[in-house]
């Protein structure tokens, strides 16, 4: 049964999209609250809806590459996680051309990914952000989705995109995403790989991704936990030993859990919760809202990042304002306030981030396999798969992601062993530094700092890479925008993040040759090369004399 208003809206949208070239009615002509460049919008943006299925209207936003079209810039799709998180977070809180600066302002991002590619985001699935479904149109109605329906919906939205923007047909195209998009991205990549979508598919990249229950969760590498607290200095070695050996048990799904059966253990765990800012609410009473407001001192997405900030509220206020809604052509959306997943009922179907707090005992996902199945299928059949993880992310910890990728059993590419990569820390503009919030780009500086450690990279055969991002939490482009832009650019241009490291040669050298003895040895030469413009900047290689 369809509401008459729904039919009318659908027909109108259908008529409106039957135009050649980019849909002019979706062109964003101004963006409220730009605090730099006299409020002038400098980037080509589109925003509107795709009629992705007869019952789903998906909000998209396209930020076009800030490059001469003759350079034929590639296109990426970005998907946020959750489930229920909106990809507008990526656009306005991570890598987009404008980053939220307060509840009613945005600041130009000099490290935007649009410097290298056109970026499409989808608020996905429907029920997230401005995207809506037919069920939502009746009072109290919500959209129902699962991993399968979400991947299918995203594929349909991509088809609508190519229809609406025919000038993108045949472009190089890669899918990127974060967190629970560790499920959304490979499942969609699998469909794109099998489809006749008119884009040149380059593969996918996921950051801090839900990938495998076995290696991430049951390996105790998901969510802030005892091992993480110990290895990152939140608790003493003595406490760790007692809690692990005397006061822990395995719960019904094999996950390490507190054992409160003796008064001594009750005390040990209470002290632990005090030391770890209530460990993200994983205490016997669950999450205390009052404590969450006032008592938290560890950022559960980045243990070294500023904690407790209003970053998400700023975005919500900004996107909910009538002026912004009008500018983005989303006023037709039934939601009063833009939000994340309040209108979504989601069923996870895979063994990836399935066992969350409160999962009913004995619950099993529909499919008894994790994302590594798809990695095994696509590795070597798509041009590249890059998995990255912030190394100070308590939520999806890099050791678990590393173990998951390692379990694919791929050989290491020649010279591709675990080695550091570097990015050049330029000075940020005073406009950006004055206007940005502390919650984005917290390590940026007005003064340039030269080449800095970006993290570590391991390259496998079949064009699979695992990359860590040093001192970054869960949202890599938010915490490390410069390093993230370099990583993004190197992946898109299919360039190595770091020079090959020849272990045969390292083994064969004398100490004097390796360490240098009054001269530059292999060690120094290698590091200088890794820090050179060729590797630590974008386009640096072209300027180097050959
Ligand atoms: C997944 O979601 C779709 C859309 O709501 C629904 O049609 C389908 O039955 C669901 N699949 C399962 C296994 O629940
Ligand atoms: C893997 O990367 C190499 C080097 O860039 C490329 O030549 C090859 O075609 C890629 N493999 C696939 C399956 O595209
Ligand atoms: C690595 O070093 C060895 C020994 O110097 C050399 O024979 C080999 O060609 C090198 N491999 C590469 C890929 O450069
Ligand atoms: C290092 O250099 C000094 C001075 O040239 C020399 O005496 C010494 O033997 C060298 N050491 C090695 C290990 O080559």
UniProtKB/TrEMBL annotation:
SUPFAM superfamilies: alpha/beta-Hydrolases. One of its GO terms (molecular function) is serine-type carboxypeptidase activity. Its EC number is 3.4.16.-. The lineage of its organism: Eukaryota, Viridiplantae, Chlorophyta, Chloropicophyceae, Chloropicales. GO terms for biological process: proteolysis. Keywords: Carboxypeptidase, Hydrolase, Protease, Signal. It comes from Chloropicon roscoffensis. This is Carboxypeptidase. InterPro entries: AB_hydrolase_fold, Peptidase_S10, Ser_caboxypep_ser_AS. Transmembrane segments: none annotated.
């Amino acid at each position: 049964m369809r509401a008459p208003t729904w039919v009318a809206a659908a027909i109108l949208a259908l008529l409106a999209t039957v135009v050649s070239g980019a849909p002019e009615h979706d062109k964003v002509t101004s963006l409220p609250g730009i605090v730099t460049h006299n409020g002038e919008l400098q980037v080509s943006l589109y925003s509107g809806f795709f009629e992705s299925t007869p019952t789903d209207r998906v909000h998209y936003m396209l930020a076009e590459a800030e490059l001469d079209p003759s350079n034929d810039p590639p296109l990426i799709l970005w998907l946020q996680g959750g489930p229920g998180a909106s990809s507008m977070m990526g656009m306005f809180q991570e890598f987009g051309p404008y980053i939220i600066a307060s509840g009613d302002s945005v600041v130009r991002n000099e490290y935007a990914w649009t410097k290298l590619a056109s970026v499409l985001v989808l608020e996905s699935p429907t029920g997230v952000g401005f995207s809506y479904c037919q069920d939502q149109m009746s009072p109290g109605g919500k959209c129902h989705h699962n991993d399968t329906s979400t991947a299918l919906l995203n594929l349909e939205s991509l088809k609508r995109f190519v229809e609406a923007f025919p000038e993108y047909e045949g472009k190089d195209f890669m899918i990127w995403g974060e967190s629970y998009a560790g499920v959304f991205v490979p499942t969609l990549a699998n469909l794109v790989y099998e489809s006749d979508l008119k884009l040149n598919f380059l593969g996918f990249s996921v950051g801090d991704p839900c990938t495998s229950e076995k290696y991430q969760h049951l390996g105790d590498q998901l969510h802030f936990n005892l091992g993480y607290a110990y290895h990152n200095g939140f608790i003493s070695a003595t406490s760790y030993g007692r809690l692990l050996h005397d006061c822990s048990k395995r719960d019904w799904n094999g996950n390490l859990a507190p054992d409160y059966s003796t008064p001594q253990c009750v005390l040990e765990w209470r002290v632990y919760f005090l030391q770890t800012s209530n460990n993200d609410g994983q205490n016997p009473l669950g999450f205390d809202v009052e404590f969450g407001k006032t008592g938290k001192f560890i950022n559960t997405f980045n243990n070294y990042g500023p904690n407790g900030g209003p970053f998400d509220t700023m975005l919500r206020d900004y996107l909910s304002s009538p002026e912004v809604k009008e500018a983005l052509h989303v006023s037709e959306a039934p939601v009063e306030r833009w939000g994340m997943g309040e209108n979504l009922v989601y069923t996870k179907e895979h063994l990836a981030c399935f066992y969350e707090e409160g999962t009913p005992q004995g619950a099993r996902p529909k499919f008894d396999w994790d994302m590594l199945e798809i990695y095994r299928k696509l590795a070597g059949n798509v041009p590249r798969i890059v998995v990255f993880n912030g190394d100070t992310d308590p939520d999806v910890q890099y050791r678990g992601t590393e173990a998951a990728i390692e379990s694919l059993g791929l050989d290491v590419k020649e010279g591709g062993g675990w080695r550091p990569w570097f990015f050049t820390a330029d000075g940020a503009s005073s406009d950006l530094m004055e206007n940005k919030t502390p919650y984005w780009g917290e390590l940026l500086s007005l003064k340039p700092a030269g080449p800095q450690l970006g993290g570590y990279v391991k390259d496998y055969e079949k064009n699979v890479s695992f990359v860590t991002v040093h001192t970054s939490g869960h949202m890599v482009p938010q915490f490390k925008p410069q390093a993230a832009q370099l990583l993004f650019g190197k992946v898109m241009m299919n360039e190595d993040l770091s020079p090959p490291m020849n272990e045969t040669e390292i083994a064969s050298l004398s100490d004097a040759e390796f360490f240098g003895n009054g001269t530059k040895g292999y060690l120094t030469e290698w590091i200088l090369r890794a820090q050179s413009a060729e590797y630590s900047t974008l386009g640096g290689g072209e300027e180097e004399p050959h």
